[in-house]
Amino acid sequence: MQLLQKLRDSAGLELITKEVDEVEAKARELSHKIIDFLMQSRGAITLYSYSGYGYVPASLMYWYSLTFQSAKHPIIAEVEDTSTYLTPYRDDLSLIAFTTGEYPKLITALQAARALEIDYLAIAPEPSAENLKPLVKHYGVVTLPYQDKVKVTLAMVMAAFFALSELYKGSLSSRGRRLAGHGLEGFAITLRSFIEKYTPTIENVVRHPHITVTSSKFLEAPAVLLAYALRCTGASATYTLIEEALQLTDMPTLAVFLTTEERLRKEFKASRKGPLVELVLNVDPLEAGVYISLLSYVLARVARASSE
User: What does pTM read for this prediction?
Assistant: First the structure.
C-alpha cells in the first residue's frame, strides 16, 4: 500500500523527475558518441549486440534503423552469440554493444572484435569491482556512472533514441521530424503526465503478488525490463511469450500493447481466459522502449524508497 501511495505523491514524483532529468543529460552526452561511431564506422552491417537489459537499447536501435531504412543493414544478437557465431565469420560489420553489467561476456566479445579489427562501441555501467576497471579501460568501454540496472538501461535507451532521432530527422517526412523534435524536447518534461495517466493501471498490477508480463515481439525487450522492475516491488513477475501467456489460465497477466497493435490486442483478449490487466501505450512505436523504461525506472525507484 505504501508503494501505491508513493506513485501518487507529488513531492516524490518531483524528485524522480529531477533524477530523470540528470539521467537524460548523461544520455545526451552518450548520444554524441553513438552518432560519431555510426557516422565513421566501416562495414555494410551494423550489429546491435547486448547482454542483460542492454537488450532494450539494442532493440530500439535495431527497429529504428530498420524502419528508417538505414544504409547499413541492422542485425541484433546477444553478446555471447556475437563472439561465437558472427564476428569470427564476418568482416563487413561494425558492432555496438550494450550491457548492464555482464562484463565477462562483453570482454570476450570485444577481444574477438579487436583481434579481427572490427569497429566497435561498447557501453556499460561503471564496474564496482576494482579488478574489472583496467579491463574496461583497456577495451575502451564507454561507462555510465550507475550500477542500478534499471537506471543504466534508461540512460542507454534514451541515448540510443536521441542519437537515431537526430541522425534520421530528415527521413520519412513528418515522422522523422516529429521524432527528432521529441528527442530535442526530452522525456523528463512529460514524465509526470505520463505516470499520472498510467498510475491506475500500475496500481492494478502491483496488487497481484504473482503476475506474468507479455507483449508483442516488438515490445519484448522493454517488457522484460518492466517484469524486472515489478520484481523490485516485491511481486513475483516473469516475462512470458504471448503465445505461451494464452495458456496461463490461472496466472494474472499484464499485457503490454501499443495502440498500433489493436488487432493483436483484440485477438489476445478473445483467446485469453485468465485474469488480465492491459497497459496500452498511445505513443510512436519507436518511442515505446523509452516510455516503458521510464515506467520501469519509476516503479523500481518508488519500490526502493518504500523500503527505506
Answer: 0.95
